[in-house]
Queue: 2 jobs
Job 1
Amino acid sequence: MGVVTPGFTGRARSGDPRLPPGQYLAEDFPVLSTGPTPRVRTDNWEFTVVTERGEKRAWSWRELFALPSEKFTVDIHCVTQWSKLDTRWRGVPVETLIGDLDTSADYVMARSYGGYTTNLPLADLLDGQAWVAYEYNGKPLTPEHGGPARLLVPHLYLWKSAKWVRGLQLTTKDDPGFWETAGYHDYGDPWREQRYQGD
Amino acid sequence: MAGTAVSGRLAWRVARLAEARQETPSARTLVFDIPGWPGHLAGQHVDVRLTAADGYTAQRSYSLAAPADGDRVELTVQRVPDGEVSEHLTGRYAAGDPVEIRGPVGGWFVWRPADPAPVLLVAGGSGIVPLMAMIRARRAAGSKALFRLVYSLRTPAERYYAEELLRPVAGLDVTYVYTRELPEGQPGIPRRISVTTLNTAGWPADFGATSYVCGPTGFVETVADILLALGHDPHTIRTERFGPSRD
Ligand SMILES: Cc1cc2nc3c(=O)[nH]c(=O)nc-3n(C[C@H](O)[C@H](O)[C@H](O)COP(=O)(O)OP(=O)(O)OC[C@H]3O[C@@H](n4cnc5c(N)ncnc54)[C@H](O)[C@@H]3O)c2cc1C
């Protein structure tokens, strides 16, 4: 047990089994990002997937919108300790976008409009675990929350769910992205409290 | 990218309260002794962990309010009504009491004394904390970088670091924006930060300044949008959001 702070009792605990350790339930939807909110227009929007050998697929906004989408309800967890339960989204499974591309990559670098990057294992984006999401709560995703489209990987801390996502680069190397370079964990599992490097 | 790579596990260290100052009726500055503190950059934050007698823990992030000074680390905590951690830290928490602290964390929202570029600091409420660390780091390093601070707050009674900021410092201009109540005798009406404020009290877009904006989400969004509208390059605008969000 850690060092006890005299007189600290803590609040009545919710004990909600759906809240990972150290998280509290947020009713609102906090916004965290590193700079101004990019206002990304959909008329020249493009989403690309590039393999480690340079093979490339690209979708315009219209083309992405025309792909089969899923509605899904998930819990999300931010490293700054808020969690939201049962958030409702719509988007295209990442698996659909990777499709039958020929790759032996183990990692992905997600890139955003505005320059943000974050790295993930490719396996964490497949099997119905991740989407390129463009609707939140039945409405188009607003710029503050990453609209027009963001990656959503609900089983990892939210910084992995790159806002204003513009593409995925498949790689064989696990290169750190923006927050990972700044000391945050390479993987970011909320249930194991992987907040910072080495956690 | 200006990252401070952290190697190895970020250790929790025992910190003891050495001194406390009441900053405003609802905010308290806490000075800790943390043996073995590795040092930090202005703008970084730490995580503070409190443990109850039954083993329950709560952990929150707080910006460092002053540059590194040996084993001394300074935070300023704003009491959030019913806030689990801030109520304790601004209330019963007393000299000698331990907490655990780990950090420093964050390598982007930082100012380095070697950087000669002009700096615009825009604070909303307790968002002044990491910006004050930058002002203090500038002074401590004898930096000549030109600084401008625009500090938005509700009333004069809520000013943090009031005396220190009143003392004139060469190369630092301070502008206050009061949103609810003006100081005694000051003409005008309370207002929010606007394009005019930042056009007058900020830097021209082509000065190559770096802007640091910190405060509640709605405030940060507004200020960043104004800076963009004034022609600032998005890559020169760094933001840190804390406190309750509005949406
Ligand atoms: C990088 C960073 C730096 C920070 N620096 C400072 C600082 O220098 N000084 C300071 O006073 N505070 C700072 N904060 C905020 C601080 O971490 C706590 O959130 C705050 O003290 C409230 O904690 P609490 O336990 O008292 O309240 P809680 O019991 O956690 O919450 C009270 C209510 O406030 C809301 N709330 C609390 N925290 C947040 C949050 N982070 N985002 C959105 N809503 C929230 C919740 O809806 C909750 O219901 C910082 C936060 C971050 C992320």
Job 2
Amino acid sequence: MLGFVLRRTGAGLLLVLVISFVTFLLLSLPDNDVARSLLGPDAPAEIIDATNAALGVDRPVLVQYADWLSHAVRGDLGQSWFTSENVGTAIAGRLPVTLSLMLGVTLLTAIVAFGLGIWAGVRRGAADRFVQILAVAGYALPGFLVTLVIVLVFAVRLGWFPAIGYIPITDSVGGWLSTITLPIVALSIGAVAGTSQQVRSAVIEVLRQDYVRTLRSRGLSTRSILFKHVLRNASAPALTVLGMQFVGLLGGAVLVEQIFGLPGLGSMAVTYTTRGDIPVIMGLLMVTVVGVVLINLAVDVAIGVLNPKARRA
Amino acid sequence: MKRTLRTATGVLALGALLALSACTADADSAGEKLKTLTIGTMTPARSMDPVDSGGGTIPYYQAVYDTLIKREPDGKLTPMLASEWNYDTAGTSLTLTIRDGVTFDDGTPVDAKAVKANLDRFRAAGAAENAQALSTKAVEVTGPKTVVITLNGPDPALLDSLSDAYGFIANPAKFGQDKPFATVPDGTGPYRLVADATMAGTVWKFERKEKYWGEQPPFASVTFYAFDNENAIVNGLKTNQIRAAVLQSVDQQIAATSGEQFTTSTQEIDLKLLNIFDRKGAKVPALGDARVRQAINYAIDRDVLVGQIQQGRGTATSQIWGTGTEGYASELDTYYSHDPAKAKALLAEAGYPDGFALTLPRLAALVPDSLAEALKSDLAAVGITLTWDDLDRVSFLTRTFREFQYPGVVMNGGQPAKDWATVSANILPKTIANPFGDTDATIQDLTGKIRTAEPAQAAQYAQQLNRHIVEQAWYVPLYRMQYLHVTVPTITAVPQAGLAVPALYNYQPAA
């Protein structure tokens, strides 16, 4: 198991390095006149040149990358070109918002999707068809449309939740719940659709296995078979999907954070990317890629624990 | 059955918890809400350093800094940190008297030295609004409370600049530090930044100081929320989380006002226009001929643009001067009425009977699909083939305003409230609107006269210059966009002359 974890960690580090290099190169294409973007069209050329020199973007790209990397490995992600904020601090300030969102969605998805998937897989018939219709609807509805409708109905019309903003959990648990509930629900719909189908298929597949028939013939209760044997085997593919969806949620978070005006990493990524603020973009990228590597590692380890055969793969 | 009951109970309990938290928050803040101002904006402040201020971010800075001169909503200038000011007879030397009894937070008095240090820093720092200080030759301290600004030549816009970015006064004690005010402002303004509740670029929160040298502001706190879409702002308005905003998008203006009880007022400030850079025809020879530029003006059906794209929210115009200026002439709004036949005749006369090809950069945020298509088809109707180069924001700025790869650009232009500001931003050589330094004898003569003449006389010259620019078709103005100021009923906001956003001082609790 340790060897497996070490191999995966090594591959993850290599991935981080390659992605950071390629992204830095792409961001530093000649078109990227940072100072012009910061100071606007009115600024005189000499001030633009001086600002570019002060930011160090007039140096060769490889030198800039080496400089950035040497600081990054020491934990210094630099300063935002746009707001002068420390990038690490800026990301740390916004991370709780996106993490709240992603963890909430994953938890809600796990509970609802596993529940629906098992129900459909075990009951089959009408229950199965009902869940399948729900899943297709969840897939088919465009995320932004669902989000906009949710805001309009539950925040604007009914006034049950705030339409925008975020209250940190440290300030008020109730406030945090009220600001995060609608975004979580909005993001969960697509995730539940995908995961519930995966759980359903896995449950049906496992229920068809010979050993389940054997267990049944020995008189074990359905509940016991389901929770002790079927779920253990069916959870591996479902966990993989859940892990992938956690990563994919970052994309969905961009949209939801913009619509709900949440100050998270998603909206930050959009705002700073359009400004060409390389230190912030690189910082966000590092946090995201490292997060993805860690999540994949965690999913692999979890599957290994649940299913010892997987460790040898 | 039991499980169903348990689940239902759980759901109800969660609902009750949320409802309770919402009620508690409302009860706690019901009274407080009347004292708070939350402004939704699409313009984030880069930092709290005055050298980064300008345009739509000015109100952020007004919370923590005072300007030397105050600009009232109608554009009238009144004393602020400068209690008096006088020009010499040549108009090239401005003497400012600094108000007594104003101190920075650390107790240091605001004096002539502090003012000079700020004005010098603004010019040296490469400020975003650097153009405001271009006429300044030197700043001199002539007494403990007296500063003299010597100019390269008369600058009728200087006093306005001193009520804007150039006029913000920060504590010079911090000037030596690296990015001294980025997230820690230090001025004499009525509010102080609440660092814990602030996230640079996204949320800036300010609380009223206990002591302020001037009149205490009416709101206990002011929070600016920066969004990248107006949809979130409108949702915030409808749930009373945002209490004031200026909406630019026609769709969002309609969404905000449909069935809601907001206090609204409209303002036409920004101009949508095709700015022709290439008036000498260096890139597209045809554009060097005034008749071709006039033809483009005649080819565009502005009424359709206003009626269909702006849904009637705006005014078609052929001039770049704003309605609040002395140089504005209402008849010039309709100087180029839609006349494709005349456009074709002018093109033929100029030697382009079959038209010509024109490629322009396009940033979708500035030129939406509907406008892009309308302009393309209007020009095609007279033989001009317009091709759009779709660009991202950074490439757009770089290729258009640094490398000048295109012969012009469709953009939003501000409409200052003063003639000289219009002239210096749009007509003088080497400005953003005139990057290749075009001019002619009439322009040189009239700009010189506007700069030095008495106000009544200057107004006449400004009108003459406006007409000349329209006749020469330097620009293809399309329409003045209508912005909607929206506030909740408990707050009023008075639009600011010459600025697309109200000054912070313009917000008041409703009577």
